[in-house]
Amino acid sequence: MIVLTEYIETEPKLLPGDLAIWFFIFMELLVFGLFFISYAVTRLQNIELFNQYQLTLNSELGAANTLLLISSSYFVIRAVHAIRLNQVKSCIYWLYAALAAGAGFLILKSIEYVGTFATGISLSTNTFYMFYLSLTLFHVLHVILGMIILLAVAIKAQRGAYNAQNHTGVETGASYWHMVDLVWIILFPLVYIIR
Amino acid sequence: MKYESQGIAKMYFIAAIALFVGQILFGTIMGLQYVMGDFLFPELPFNVVRMVHTNLLIIWLLFGFMGSAYFLVPEESERELFSPMLAKVMFWIFLFAGVMTILGYLLVPYARLAEITMNDLLPTMGREFLEQPTITKIGIVIVVLAFLFNIGMTILTGRKTVINVVLLTGMVGLAVFFLFSFYNPDNIVLDKYFWWFVVHLWVEGVWELIMASLLAYVLIKVTGVDREVVEKWLYIIIAMALISGLLGTGHHFFWIGTPDYWQWIGSVFSALEPIPFFMMTLFAFNVVNKRRRDHPNKAAVLWALGTAVMAFLGAGVWGFLHTLAPVNFYTHGTQITAAHGHMAFYGAYVMVVLTMISYSMPLMRGQKAANVTAQLLEMWSFWLMTISMVFITLFLTGAGIVQVYLQRYSDDPLPFMVVQEKIALFYWMREVAGVVFLIGLMLYIYSFFAKGKEVEFVEE
Fold first, then answer.
1. Cα–Cα distance, B298 to B275 (Å, whole number)
2. How far is A164 from chain B (nearest CA, A)?
3. Shortest Cα distance from B260 to chain A (angstroms)?
4. B3: three-class secondary structure by DSSP
């Protein structure tokens, strides 16, 4: 482990951003990974139930949200790219663009949930909805946390905390945001599409 | 010792150790009652002894945490304690309340104790681990609030470090979640549900923050490793403890009448609870390997490393053993739980308090470290207590496996008491291990008084 941490931290760095965020990301992926495996195993035992209720989900909104998150990931890449070239202003704009896309995701998700809850569906309705609701709600919490991190990075950038030499914070925020996006890219087809 | 007010920790630690002895004495009595049901009956019935054993543990750990905080906070904050006087007054109030409560358990029937303490005005008694009379609970709240005010003011007006802020967060959490012990709904499902908000969110939530910060503090002191390194580890450990521990509460909601989805949420999140403990082990060994100096207090280093390892085994591994819903369906409330409870409490919280005591006590007695003989004896007591606790855990695990099989898993399940007789051998062996633990504890106390050659003093 000691050798490993030293190896990871040597220059040129294998991982962008702060090493600590990668432990955090690893932990998050582990939680989602366990949930995805549980979903897959449970689906195998209840294929008809899962197929039946999957059709009730709003996959159009889900697809739109996928586009939003992928775009936002592109925006944070542009932000990192900009700060590496010392273009602080451009970095800030791209970060806010990513935040706007994140906000868009939350709005669409809220519309989706309003529709879901209006029909009286809850965690206890059936196993499929239990997974659908807990997975998506848990992911939404991560979108919110990711947005808080990006906002903190953007505010620090506005105060001139980052430049071409020193921008670990931007990379750290971007890494976390990519994780949020990655999880959705797996979650969306798994829960909404694959039959 | 850099600040005079750190010395207040001493009285807290002495009280903690005294109550610790009481806890272990009652533990050995109860261990015997498992195999000799009428031992000391009717003076000390099993249910009363059990209550004293668990309540003493909680009270002395609270003494230990508060003492640790009083030692740590002034030094980290680089100022004297906000009010040493308040800390002393609260010590005596807490000791009085604690001792009176235990005497109440022992001297009057529990129902009578409830009457005397006017439990019917605000009924909170009669629930496992929260048996304290309502007035004692109110006393605990007052003491903890005064304590929080005291260390809070010290930290807020002094230097804020990751360590003291994490410690303060943990302590605030401890206070907040204890408030759920006053909520006592008639519906037994809701009652159990919120009962876990105290029990689980203490030991698998905010106490982990306290533990991590105490461990980090001692490790910085004994190894001289950069604060930056330690702080980064602390952040990761805390994040993982909270991610896994908060929703991990769900592993208590499998069979108490709550909705089915808790079986999934509880299983998934609590399955990850060993990770923060594993990180603490990596952290401790990593930091000790990278040490910049060899601290003369070898015993404290041993306790610190021991804490990390035993917490991972007891809380992490033994917890994981029965945390998944399909497994817990069989193991719930058997001796497997008792095995886990013993090693987790010892490994995580008893040992971290003993680590703090080991590091700070010599400093409060005007030494850099205890003398060579005293340290040797202390290390012997470490091994005696730790190894006997490993055996207590293994014997209870053995008892638990047989119990699960005979009582719940076999084609022809046997009644509870029949099974208890069949596993008596495990209980006897557990009792022997328990007596060894008591001997280790006696040796530990003796080590404070042992005379011997002073340690080589190496200037930092």
1. 27
2. 23
3. 7
4. coil
For residues B453 and B57, the answer to whether their CB atoms sit within 8 Å is no
pLDDT single digits (tens) B261-316: 999 999 999 999 999 999 999 999 999 999 998 999 999 999 999 999 999 999 99
CB contact under 8 A, A35 and B268: yes
- Count Cβ atoms within 10 A of the Cβ of residue B231 and give its class: 0-12 exposed, 13-18 middle, 19 or more buried: middle
Determine whether the interchain pair B275/A5 forms a contact, defined as Cβ–Cβ distance below 8 Å: no
Q: What is the 3-state secondary structure (H, E, C) of chain A?
A: CHHHHHHHHCCCCCCCCCHHHHHHHHHHHHHHHHHHHHHHHHHHHCHHHHHHHHCCCCHHHHHHHHHHHHHHHHHHHHHHHHHHCCCHHHHHHHHHHHHHHHHHHHHHHHHHHHHHHHCCCCCCCCHHHHHHHHHHHHHHHHHHHHHHHHHHHHHHHHCCCCCCCCCHHHHHHHHHHHHHHHHHHHHHHHHHHCC
Report the candidate in B76, B67, B62, B59 with the shortest Cα–Cα distance to residue B8: B67
Interchain proximity B290–A31, CB inside 8 Å: no
pLDDT, tens only, A17-68:
887 788 889 889 999 999 999 999 999 999 999 999 999 999 999 999 999 9
Q: Which of A15, A22, A30 to mutate to test the interface with B (most CBs of B within 10 A)?
A: A30
Tell me which H or E stretch contains B179.
none
| Amino acid occupying residue B261 | Y
Note whether B67 and B145 are within 8 A (CB): no
Instruction: Tally A–B CB contacts below 8 A.
Output: 50
Q: Which residue in A9, A50, A24 sits closest to A177, CA to CA?
A: A24
Tokens 């609970």, residue?
B137
Degrees, nearest 5: CA angle B156-B165-B88:
65
Over the range B358-375, which residues count as b (16 or more CB within 10 Å of their CB) and which as e?
A: bbbbbbbeebbbbbbebb
Contact B206, B173 (CB under 8 A): yes
Confidence check on the interface: ipTM exceeds 0.90, yes or no = no
Judge whether B383 and B443 are in contact, CB under 8 Å. no
**Contact list, A35 vs chain B (CB under 8 Å):** 268
The CATH code that applies to domain A2-193 is: 1.20.120.80
A23 part of contact set with chain B, CB < 8 Å: yes
Measured distance CA(B376)–CA(B384) in Å, rounded: 12
**CA–CA separation, B310 vs B308, rounded Å?**
6
Query: Three-state DSSP class for B344?
Result: helix
Q: Judge whether B5 and B80 are in contact, CB under 8 Å.
A: yes
pLDDT digits over B33-65, tens only? 999 999 999 999 999 999 999 999 999 999 999
pLDDT above 80: residue B460: no
Sequence letter at residue A172: T
Whether residue B101 contacts residue B110, with contact meaning beta carbons closer than 8 Å, is answered with no
* CB-side neighbour CA atoms (13 Å) of A152: 13
- Taking the C-alpha atoms of residue B276 and residue B240, their distance in angstroms, rounded to an integer, is 5
DSSP letter, residue B184: -
Quick one: how far is CA A58 from the chain centroid? 19
